[in-house]
Structures are given as C-alpha cells and as structure tokens.
TrEMBL record:
This is GTPase Era. It comes from Desulfosporosinus fructosivorans. Keywords: Cell membrane, Cytoplasm, GTP-binding, Membrane, Nucleotide-binding, Ribosome biogenesis, RNA-binding, rRNA-binding. GTP binds at residues 19-26, 66-70, 128-131. It is a peripheral membrane protein. Gene3D superfamilies: 3.30.300.20, P-loop containing nucleotide triphosphate hydrolases. Residues 19-26 are annotated as: G1. It is found in: Cytoplasm; Cell membrane. Monomer. Residues 210-286 form the KH type-2 domain. One of its GO terms (biological process) is ribosomal small subunit assembly. InterPro entries: G_ERA_dom, GTP-bd, GTPase_Era-like, KH_dom-like_a/b, KH_dom_type_2, KH_sf_prok-type, P-loop_NTPase, Small_GTP-bd. Residues 45-49 are annotated as: G2. Transmembrane segments: none annotated.
C-alpha cells in the first residue's frame, strides 16, 4: 500500500519512451510494470497513438508514454505516427531514448538525435540488449559517440529482456523527477482509452458551461469505473487550482455541477452504450498547473495559455 499522506517525498512525472522500431520499448515497459500491459500495442488503433503505463512505488509514480517507433516517415500514416511520437516528447518531464545496442548507427538514429536536439526535456539514453553485448569496448565507443551528440542526463545500459540494470534506470528516472501528485490510483498500470474519452467529456462540459470564468488550468481524472449489473458507475474528479474556481464549477446550491454531470453522463452513456451513474467531485490542487503541460500531452487538453 502506497501512502502519499504520511510520506514527505513523493516524486511523479511523465516520461516519454522513444526509439526506433524494435529497440525494445514494449519489452522494457512490460518488464518494469511486471505485467504484459502493452499487448494492445499490436492493435493498429493503439500503436498509432500513445499508450500510457503507470508505475507506482513508495517513492513516487512514473507515467510512461509508449510511443510508436520513430522512423523517417515514408507515407501519411507513418507521418502521423511519427507526429504522435514527436508530440509525446513535448512537455514531458523526462525522455527515455532507447537504442538497440546491436543495431548499427544510421539515418534512423540520426533522425531521432536531431529531434532530441530540439527538445527541452531532460533525456536519458538507454542502451538496450546488453545481454547480447560481445565487447565492452563497443559499448564504451557507443557511449562516447552518442554523448558527443546530445547532452544526456545519464546513460544506462540495460537488458529489457533479462531485467539487468533496470533498477538503476528507475533510480535515474526518479532522480530527474520532482515532488508531485499521484496522478493515477496506485493499482492502475495502464489506462483504458474509454477513460480518456470520459475525462474529456466531463472537461468539455466544464469549459462549455463556465465559459471564460474557468481557465484551462483544470484537469479531469476518472478515478473509478465499476461495472455493476445494470449500470456502470463512474467517479470523476475535476481538479482546479483555486478555491474560487471550485465555487464556480459547483455553482450556487451545486446547480452548475449538477448540470455538468448530467450532460457528461448522457455523453458517457452514449459512449459506453450502457446506463451510467456518474459521480463528479471537485478538488483544489495548488500545484496542478505545473503538471498541466504534461497532462495536455496525454490528451487532457490541447489549449495553450
Ligand atoms: N536479447 C534481447 N532482446 C530484446 C531485448 N529487448 C527487446 N528485445 C527483443 O527485441 C524485439 C523488439 O522488442 P519490442 O519490445 O517489441 O520493441 P519496440 O521498441 O516496442 O518495437 P516497436 O513496437 O516496433 O516500436 C523483440 O523480439 C524483443 O524480444 C533485450 O534486452 N535483449
């Protein structure tokens, strides 16, 4: 059981995992999470987009963004997928750049290196498949070569397959994160696409009904989805920055919040094709705005202040 209230330090953040196809991104994430959550990445509609996986420990929570492998796009779909991967590099707290040690350095890696040079997020270079390493000199040579190109915060050789050195990698990631909230319940390892859409529907209603009174610094988190016999119970949390905003969202006598949840419930019922009991809460989190850029990256919103 992870307790955030009793602990002073709880680090959290968003980590984008990038690399060429076959670098071992899914293998690494499945290993870190201790289960095969990325099996869905075989399905076209998910591999084209970003998938997020959540790792929660006593010391903090990492929200990983798995991205489609980056390659020089040759067609529209490829362009779209690479666009998704590039998008996921913006505003994240850390970028993990995974390189297959056994693959030759070529235009594919060059393309990613150029992208990294333009990125402002700290980047950790991960050399994967160290279990296949034949000479230490080769590893040293690669480390020098890559380090000369980009200012990496750390370089960590690992084997995603055997798990070798992945603990050290986690230490490096946590070292780059600052104190932050627990974004997802501790037992959640991946998010269902429906949850994102549900959160978006609630957020949309808040923005529609409060017009300009509520800035874009709100977030909606679906905290619980429980399938009952005849209906689906959904609990949503609207996170605002200030007490005054909480008042606006709730409205006099709770009228506004009631309307938000009624409209959102109707949309969610249409989405799920089932009756829904929607419970909506509003909470003030002062440091929320700082994390919003990362959240936007996850589809929580596209607006820029
Ligand atoms: N020997 C060895 N093989 C690995 C390691 N990590 C991944 N692989 C293998 O490399 C292949 C690609 O791994 P994936 O995890 O699917 O790679 P990916 O980066 O998610 O690939 P895309 O989904 O195409 O972007 C698989 O056959 C893995 O079993 C490792 O550390 N050692």
């Amino acid at each position: 059981m992870v307790s955030t209230t009793s602990k002073k330090e709880f680090r959290s953040g968003f980590v984008s995992v990038i690399g060429r196809p076959n670098a071992g991104k899914s293998t690494l994430l499945n290993h870190l999470l201790g289960q095969k959550v990325l099996i869905m990445s075989d399905k076209p509609q998910t591999t084209r987009n970003r998938i997020q996986c959540i790792l929660t420990e006593e010391r903090g929570q990492i929200v990983f963004l798995d991205t489609p492998g980056i390659h020089k796009p040759k067609h529209k779909l490829g362009e779209y997928m690479v666009g998704k991967a590039k998008e996921s590099m913006r505003d994240v707290d850390v970028i993990l750049y995974l390189v297959d040690l056994t693959a030759e350095y070529g235009p594919g890696e060059e393309y990613i290196i150029e992208m990294l040079k333009q990125s402002k997020s700290p980047c950790i270079l991960v050399f994967n498949k160290v279990d296949l390493l034949v000479s230490k000199e080769m590893l040293m040579h690669k480390i020098q070569k890559y380090s000369a190109l980009v200012d990496f915060k750390a370089v960590v050789p690992i084997s995603a397959k055997t798990g070798e050195n992945t603990d050290a990698l986690l230490d490096e990631i946590f070292a780059q994160l600052s104190n932050g909230p627990m974004y997802y319940p501790e037992d959640e390892v991946t998010d269902q696409p429906e949850r994102f859409i549900m959160a978006e529907l609630v957020r949309e209603k808040v923005l529609q009904l409060t017009h300009d009174e509520i800035p874009h610094s709100i977030a909606v988190v679906i905290e619980e989805v429980e399938e009952k016999k005849t209906l689906v119970k959904v609990r949503a949390l609207i996170v605002v920055e200030r007490e005054s905003q909480k008042g606006i969202v709730i409205g006099a006598g709770g009228k506004q919040l009631k309307e938000i949840s009624t409209l959102a419930r109707m949309d969610i019922e249409a989405l799920l094709g089932s009756k829904v009991f929607l419970e909506v809460w509003v909470k003030v989190k002062k440091d929320w705005r700082n994390r919003m850029d990362s959240l936007r990256n996850y589809g929580y919103g596209k607006e820029r202040e």
